[in-house]
């Protein structure tokens, strides 16, 4: 489910948009559980808004894009 208003904004404005965990997972085309696992593993930058036991997470689109642009395997880990 995409947000029509998000598609109408410029790229700079879209990068400043905060996404919920469900929206961020949809943007990355993964399940919400996978996204939250990646956050706990430090693979994706997330921001905790509240909660001590059950956290409320928000994600910046720019942070998600940066994750997508970085290599999935570090050069020293590649097999030759």
Give the helices and strands, then pairings.
Elements: H1 4-8, H2 11-15, E1 18-20, H3 21-28, H4 32-41, E2 47-50, E3 56-60, H5 61-69
Antiparallel strand pairs: 1-3, 2-3
Helix pairs in contact: 3-4
Characterization of the model:
Helix content is 46%, strand content 15%. The chain is built from 5 helices and 3 strands, in the order ααβααββα. Strands 1-3-2 form a 3-stranded antiparallel β-sheet.
Structural class: alpha+beta
What is the global morphology? globular
Outline the biggest β-sheet: 3 strands, antiparallel
User: Percent range for helical residues?
Assistant: 40-55%
Report the total helices: 5
- CA-CA gap between termini: 41 Å
Q: How are strands sequenced across the largest beta sheet?
A: 1-3-2
Poorly predicted parts: none
Query: Could you give the count of β-strands?
Result: 3
Q: How big a fraction of the residues is strand?
A: 15-25%
Q: What Rg do the Cα atoms give?
A: 14 Å
Note the run of SSEs as H and E. HHEHHEEH
Overall pLDDT, averaged? 80
Which tags fit this structure?
three-stranded antiparallel β-sheet, 80 residues, 3 strands
Q: How would you summarize this macromolecular structure in one to three sentences?
A:
With 80 residues, the protein is an alpha+beta fold. The protein contains five helices and three strands.
């Amino acid at each position: 489910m995409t947000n029509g208003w998000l598609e109408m904004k410029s790229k700079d404005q879209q990068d400043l948009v905060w996404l919920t965990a469900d929206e961020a997972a949809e943007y990355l085309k993964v399940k919400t559980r996978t996204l939250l696992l990646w956050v706990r593993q430090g693979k994706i930058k997330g921001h905790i808004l509240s909660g001590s036991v059950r956290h409320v997470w928000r994600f910046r689109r720019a942070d998600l894009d940066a994750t997508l642009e970085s290599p999935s395997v570090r050069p020293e880990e590649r097999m030759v």
